């Protein structure tokens, strides 16, 4: 491909290639040739296809098993990223997702190592979720709210422990049982069970 128009991209690219050492160009051609030979080998293509199918099958089995494990305990649900996502979606339908958001914010807060960041994060979480009339106020009693407020004066990774525990208990006793009975979760368990039955029938 050639072009004599000033500023032509093809011309610029050719000039750029011309400045490269011959050894670099030869190595690039050699690499391209080797890759082409490998990709045209039928056994390699078959192996790559089989590998991807196995990985996909493994993910499906894992996700099916995971969905069924959510009903074993609230802890099992919280350990699963997809479980937390599904639960959060359900809580939105009940307009109570702030409870889970607060719990997750507390989990992230505990991982903070910098004392400066710890204090600023603590104030931000308190103002968003805990203080009276907060934008996303969680349902905790006045005593727990005041204990948490006092904890902010010397913020540590444990300053939200009591408020987080109260919120977790509320979700476990109230929202979690309704989630398990919800149409969305029932559909997920049916799909997971049917995949399990289909898998056993093919073995």
Describe what you observe in this structure:
- It is found in: Membrane.
- This is Regulator of G-protein signaling 16.
- Keywords: GTPase activation, Lipoprotein, Membrane, Palmitate, Phosphoprotein, Signal transduction inhibitor.
- It is built from ten helices and no strands.
- Helix 5 runs antiparallel to helix 6.
Task: Draw up the topology in text.
Blueprint: H1 9-18, H2 22-39, H3 42-69, H4 74-79, H5 81-93, H6 97-110, H7 115-130, H8 142-151, H9 161-181, H10 183-201
Helix pairs in contact: 3-10, 5-6, 6-7, 6-9
Radius of gyration: 28 Å
Classified in CATH, the superfamily of one domain is: Regulator of G-protein Signalling 4, domain 2
Helical element count? 10
State mean pLDDT (0 to 100 scale): 79
Distance between the termini: 56 Å
State the share of residues found in helices, binned by percent: over 70%
Report the sheet with the most strands, covering strand number, pairing sense and barrel closure. Answer: none
What is the strand content? under 5%
Query: How many runs of DSSP E, i.e. beta strands?
Result: 0
CATH architectural category of one domain: Orthogonal Bundle
The general outline is elongated
Low-pLDDT runs of 5+ residues are: 1-5, 9-14, 37-61
Computed structural class = mainly alpha
What's the level 1 CATH class of one domain?
Mainly Alpha
List the helices and strands in order: HHHHHHHHHH
CATH third-tier fold name of one domain: Regulator of G-protein Signalling 4, domain 2
GO cellular component, one term: membrane
Main location: membrane
Membrane topology: Lipid-anchor
GO molecular function, one term: GTPase activator activity
